[in-house]
Amino acid sequence: MTRDLYLDDLEPGQVYGSGETTVTEADIVGFARSFDPQPFHLDAEEAASTFFGGLAASGWHTAALTMRLLVGSEMRLAGGIIGAGMDELRWPKPLRPGDTIRLESEVIEVRPSRSRPSQGLAKVRTTTLNQHGEPVQVLVANLLVVRRPGG
Hints:
By secondary structure, the protein is an alpha+beta fold. It is built from 4 helices and 5 strands. The two termini are 22 Å apart.
């Protein structure tokens, strides 16, 4: 059974994995219809003549899928995954229909709060990888993490 992780449990260099999810053409088009209705996200035929050379998921769809995988990942933070901001968000390669993605989350930095001793910040790089091990998203986020009670 996975236990909740507190700020006190985190150290730079730790890497946490996740499960996988596969994205379908219907998933990509459905998300795009609601949130990013551009031709390269909506229609495979039209997308063929664009920069992407085929249907590609919106970066925001990739980000949403990443969040879903992160919530169920090995990096189960006590109090939940609470973002305090991002230092970096990149989409180096498009997410395509049929791609299966997973996460690798690496702790980069851990800083206890001086003003709020019950919490701190963890800087975490989460790389979303496709089935070929190629990054489709890189996110460096600052997460608010609670400290162990009584610690």
